[in-house]
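Readers outside the structure-tokenisation community will struggle with the description of the input data as it stands. For illustration, here is how one protein appears when written out as sequence plus structure tokens:
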Amino acid sequence: MALKLYSFWRSIATYRVRIALNLKGIVPDEIVDVDLLKGKQREDAFREVNPQMVIPALIDGDGPVMFQSMAILEYLEETHPQPPLLPRDAKGRARVRGLCQIAISDAHPMSVPRVRNYLTNELKLDPPTLLKWIRHWQQEALRAYEAHLTNGSGTARYCHGDTITLADACLAGQVVGSGFFDIDVKAYPACARIYDACMQNEAFAKAHPLKQPGAPEKISH
């Protein structure tokens, strides 16, 4: 059965999914580029795939279409359990999921294109004010990560223990996404250390947004 991923190089949500696919050795049969910056997500062809008009979306065989990165990550974990990206114990799984949600639920939604467009076009925020808004929420997330990773039990080489979990994929996305808006992760030492450890893994390095087809050599917000 064919596996189809709807992706875009700059999408941090899709970056998380690419990391998990790479870690589990899953190669999509087809990758469909949905250029968010050109508004391709609003075209009828993609609306039929995901009426919310966001990526990633994943189709595995006959469907249904899977959407929202956390749901896709959980699906991949359930259908391809090796290597495991969630801890065996319930409390550990809860901690990893909580770390994931800092990025997925709290920070990332504040800076996606549809939010930036609304703030600019409808609320008339000028570019400096918009950038201030985005940086505020990105830094709030990094501060939260730093506190949990520094003070919480369970942190080791990676976010939770000495093996990679979904929390590391989400932290990597948070760090890269913050970097798009010139936020230096060095101000958050635990985040920086774990991100550096993750990027030594080929699954993370190959999935990086700037390594994808169509990506520029460097990013500008």
User: Anything to note?
Assistant: The chain has nine helices and four strands. The chain has two domains: 3-79, 90-211. The chain has a mean pLDDT of 93. The radius of gyration is 17 Å.
